[in-house]
Amino acid sequence: MENKLPNAVLCVGMLNCDIYFKNIPHNLMVMDTTIARDVEMRVGGDAANVASNLAMMGVNVHLCANVTNDVFGDFGCSTLEAVGVDTSYIYHTSTSGSATSLFFFDPEGQKHSASFWGGNRTLEPTQVTDEMLSCARHMHIGSFVNLQKFFGEPAIDLLKRAKAKGLTISADISAGGGKPIQYDKIAPMMPYCDMFTMNENEMYTLTGTRDEEEAAKKLSVCAPGLLILKLGARGVYVTDFKDLNAHYPTLTRPEEVIDTTGAGDSFNSGFIASQLAGLSLDECIMVGSACSALCLNNKGASNWGFAFEDVLAMARERAAAL
């Protein structure tokens, strides 16, 4: 059944429950116990972050992930439903528990974390059904590296099925937790992606260089439609491996940075929403950068919550001021 909405997105990948502890002393691990200033639970995980951000910007979005019927999985699903994400494609079949991350902020605000990947380890490409693909115009896969089964022929088959149904595809490496990036596993999937993104550290791990143009040359043999390298304070580098090789400045003001968690996912959210709205590449990059700025100004990965029109206005205002 064909029931695609004009801006419908299917996000696939990681769904976490993030727990934040604040004002934790530096010597936590040598103490018997300590008292946190306050504790918060929030939704996290790359695919869930993008889904939540898109829903708050007014995009119709579905999420395919894997959790257990435990307190963490139930919290993630109910929180996503509250902001408008369709959670009917979330599996509750993980036998290892729902993914959970603990974030400890020291008195200076520096973040230290520990993650349990739970159901994120077991989600498989075959679980993304043709029915799910039929509901969307765009598919975003978060955490190619951390989704341990999203490699090889099953993953390529998913990308081919999505293409056959006319979907555009974006993907993000999202190599958290020091996970190594294996070029021979990533490269075969990149040509099927209309947009492939990574941050500066992931770029270095994958290509061995911190020079974005050199990295792009090394990746040209497996070129996606667009390669987008998120370079933090240095802005964004974009290439189509043909005529486009562009650097875009950051729209983040240094004094606004509170927490970097989810900034890359926020960029992806803004870019996808702008692309579905028919904006130019320049404005897609601007809105993505504005979403990153909003995320950096809050604690948590998807806690900023602005309508698309407001983000677009902010992006245009800040870009004009550069």
In whole angstroms, the N-to-C terminal distance is 47 Å
Q: How many independent structural domains?
A: 1
Helix content: 25-40%
* Spatial extent as radius of gyration: 19 Å
Derived from helix and strand composition plus strand pairing, the structural class reads alpha/beta
Largest sheet: 8 strands, mixed
Describe this structure in words.
The protein is of the alpha/beta class. It has one domain: Ribokinase (UDP-N-acetylmuramoyl-L-alanine:D-glutamate ligase). The model has no long low-confidence stretch (mean pLDDT 90). It starts with 8 loop residues before the first strand and ends with a helix. The longest helix has 16 residues. Helix content is 33%, strand content 19%.
Summarize the structure.
The protein has 322 residues and is of the alpha/beta class.
